[in-house]
Amino acid sequence: MKGVSYFNKKIEELKRLSRICRGDIIKMTTIAGSGHPAGSMSSIDIYLTLFTFANITPENIDDPRRDRIIVSHGHTSPALYSCLARLGFIDIAELLVGFRKINSPFEGHIERNIPGVEWSTGNLGQGLSAGCGFALASKLHKTNYDTFVVMSDAEQAKGQVGEARRFARKFGLNNLTVIIDNNHFQISGRTEEVMPVRIKENYIADGWEVLEVDGHDFQSLYSAIKKALGDQENPYAIIARTVMGCGVSFMENKADFHGKAATPEECKRALKELGVEDDLEELLRNKDSKKSFTKFNRKDPPQPLIKTGTPKIYEETTHPRAVFGNVLAEIAEMNPQDKIAVFDCDLAGSVKVTKFAEIKPTNFFEAGVSEHTTATTAGALSINGILTLWADFGVFNIDEVYNQLRLNDINNTNLKIIATHLGYNVGPDGKTHHCIDYIGLLRNLFGFKLVIPADPNQTDRIIRYVLNQTGNYVIALTRSKLPIIRNESGKVFFDKDYKFTYGKIDLIREGNDCVLFTMGAMVNQALSAWQALKKDGIGMRIYNISSPLHIDREIITDAAATGCIITYEDHIARTGLGGIIGQIIAENKVSTNFVKLGIENYGGSDNAGRLYRKYGLDSDSLGSFVKKMLQK
């Protein structure tokens, strides 16, 4: 952070910019006809202080040693964008007419492709979790930058914020400072009436130091930030007392302008009161004339290439989770401290990350029952040049945190999720723990890739492959042990020569009477059915679809030549593999008999085999169904 002498030179300039930025905020939201002007006007002085004195400039935005500023309440984008424009990061003329406009980079909530923006936000309550990820990256890389998170007061009511506070305290993130815009208003009225929160007491209870300042006094803000940075032991929360709509009398302390733009007449009144240039009419006349805008290219650190070791061949029935744990431990031994991090949420033994924790304890982050902050923190860490993994049960790291994964997708993170305990295969834990919808959810996330191994050997290859890939991947593993898939001659199918690539489809068995597409634990069930059908003279071709979100359409159309296609899965049939292949058949106008076999309702508690039999998903039920289908 820049020193006191620099601050003293800048304070009068900041006061001038404060008025100008408030004018920008009102202009751009009025021109757009929507936005959040009043909250932006309460936050602007915080942004000006941070971006003036933190170690971040238009010239060093790609420097790994720069400070990181995370904005959690992304609806204050007018304030952040105006601040960045007036400090030389972006063009003010483009901003004023391009805010919330198609083809413009200046969306309604902040986007990280804008120079100076580190994390796209809008979903309140996630910024502190992201800040923890950036602060962790500084620790792991030993780059010693500081991370600042600017938040609203209303979002302090979210449980994820509490999870993040405790995470920061546990892992000693003394390089993390939170500044809370405490303007006492949210869209439905006063925060104290909508949902009372003891902000100061909550931070203190979780081990943070708390300072309270006037959020419109640059000297007070600067002094508080300097004090926070000078403490090498604690994370700090600075509660900045601000005024909603500060600077314009008819907007101050009114919830109306939280999410409503001023009319042109109101805008002109506000500009006059602020004493800034009124060029609104000219801007309104020309707002549609600009058709193209500056394209920004963000340079994120590349995901590190890691040593992945030598593939292992398994001959015996094995837990895929155990295979993951073995590969992870091997990788931990082979790679340096600053390349890898693993997160757990109180399931280390079940998801097999304990060996890694023993080998690299400073790279293992046990977050307890805090899945929401873990999803965001791990995602933020993953875009900072560190291979980041999070292992958990599928109901927790897919179902429970869908919104956090969606925001990770928007931020183009590089998170590697190991989702275990999927489908009825989970067995006696019952319906609350049967993750039966993960494919359907992940289909909605444009940048996520999903891989489902069929046996221990394919699990080994997939893990070693995925850990050196860029982007968000989910590796889906069963709870139960899986037998080794073998070819017709009894040899290991996924042998030493097998190489996994994303989208690859494996032909497990030949057959011309019907074609079965399956995946994961159901491949072995299908093989048992294949053997029985063969004795009855029925040839069922079996394909293992390990990448269900990326299927070769040609294989589907070729399969239709048999006149019979079946999908078979331990997942909700209409949203999983069956839904995907059914869509391909329809879109390609393929004529064939087609049936989806899968989960139709929540299951009960028992071992996986009994559950499969009860719900018609065991190998005998599959064989009987195929016979009936071919008789039609």
Mean pLDDT: 96
What is the CATH level 1 assignment of the largest domain? Alpha Beta
Distance between the termini: 76 Å
Largest sheet: 6 strands, parallel
Annotated CATH topology of the largest domain: Rossmann fold
Enumerate the spans where pLDDT stays under 50 for 5 or more consecutive residues. Answer: none
CATH H level of the largest domain: which superfamily? Thiamin diphosphate (ThDP)-binding fold, Pyr/PP domains
Radius of gyration: 28 Å
Query: What is the count of helical runs?
Result: 24
Quick one: overall form? elongated
CATH architectural name of the largest domain: 3-Layer(aba) Sandwich
Look at the helices and sheets and give the structural class: alpha/beta
Tally of discrete structural domains: 3
> What strand order characterises the main sheet?
9-8-10-11-13-12
Q: Strand percentage, roughly?
A: 15-25%
The helix content, as a percent range, equals 25-40%
For the secondary structure, the number of strands is 18
GO molecular function, one term: transketolase activity
InterPro entries: PDH/Transketolase (IPR051157), THDP-binding (IPR029061), Transketo_C/PFOR_II (IPR009014), Transketolase-like_Pyr-bd (IPR005475), Transketolase_C (IPR033248), Transketolase_CS (IPR049557), Transketolase_N (IPR005474)
Protein name: Transketolase
Cofactor: Mg(2+); thiamine diphosphate; Mn(2+)
